[in-house]
């Protein structure tokens, strides 16, 4: 199987490095100083085994790679549209496209009964360009639970976790899922099929839609959010609204909200990825994490006032800081 990881951030780099270490073949598409460091020194990963290095085929020229059997997208949702021209040379008639992404994915309406008159979400895929470029039948769902970060170019840290949940948009137990799970298993990570990928998406989103935008508004780690008594009602309402939207679209991911909030409060002063991006001056991933749920709520005629307010405030704060515009349109987004 020809496998390419487009966008070798922390998660993509860890997956690629561990696959190479496990004897599998994979190519990564990266850019800038991270790519140069990998090409010169190899990819270094720090984990519980210490620091180790692998040599890996890496490039920023997708035209040199040809069409892939499995294309794993490691870019954030708001940077995917401007990268489509660079991605297209990797796509063939039989290519499977698996996007490792937080929030509601671009293929969300594919494979379910959709009674809400939409083919795509403008907050995730304006104009449906992603859907048209790939074709919904190529999509394979993936939810990742991992704690990782890029320490400096060419060096990635794997802190905790490492579960990849993979499933078909229509929840079928397909041969394609079995092939992809088998192909990624040499990584030594927990690569698992799931018969209900949307419930896994919503389950993770309940944490992202609370901790990520609110951490930016408060400029606080998790302890200052989930451990603050005055925030409890706000966070409770966000999850309650999101779970109502999830039910309207057939998901069974109905959380025990207090239990979820209590668990998040134990994370100490760790920072969300969105707050880390805010502090680093990077563009923020808000549309797929928050705006998409507001849009789904409008389609299903379900009110989401708390989510709408948090979304508006976070977008405005990020925009004033020069870190947000309606769907990132900058080039060189990998």
Question: Can you characterise this structure?
Answer:
This protein is α/β, with parallel strands linked by helices and 334 residues long. It folds into two domains: 3-195, Rossmann fold (3-Layer(aba) Sandwich), CATH 3.40.50.720; 199-320, Orthogonal Bundle (N-(1-d-carboxylethyl)-l-norvaline Dehydrogenase, domain 2), CATH 1.10.1040.10. The protein is built from twelve helices and ten strands. Strands 1, 2, 3, 4, 5, 6, 7, 8, 9 and 10 form a ten-stranded mixed beta sheet that branches. Strand 7, helix 4 and strand 8 form a beta-alpha-beta unit. The model is unreliable at 328-333 (pLDDT under 50).
What's the CATH class of the largest domain, please? Alpha Beta
How many separate helices?
Answer: 12
Radius of gyration over C-alpha positions, nearest whole angstrom:
19 Å
Mean pLDDT over all positions: 92
The percentage helix is 25-40%
CATH topology of the largest domain: Rossmann fold
What's the number of extended β-strand segments?
Answer: 10
Distance between the termini: 23 Å
Low-confidence stretches: 328-333
**CATH-derived architecture of the largest domain:** 3-Layer(aba) Sandwich
CATH homologous superfamily of the largest domain, by name? NAD(P)-binding Rossmann-like Domain
The class by helix and strand makeup works out as alpha/beta
Biggest beta-sheet profile: 10 strands, mixed
**Number of structural units classed as domains:** 2
Q: Shape, please?
A: globular
Strand content: 15-25%
Order of helices and strands: EHEHEEEEHEHEEHEHHHHHHH
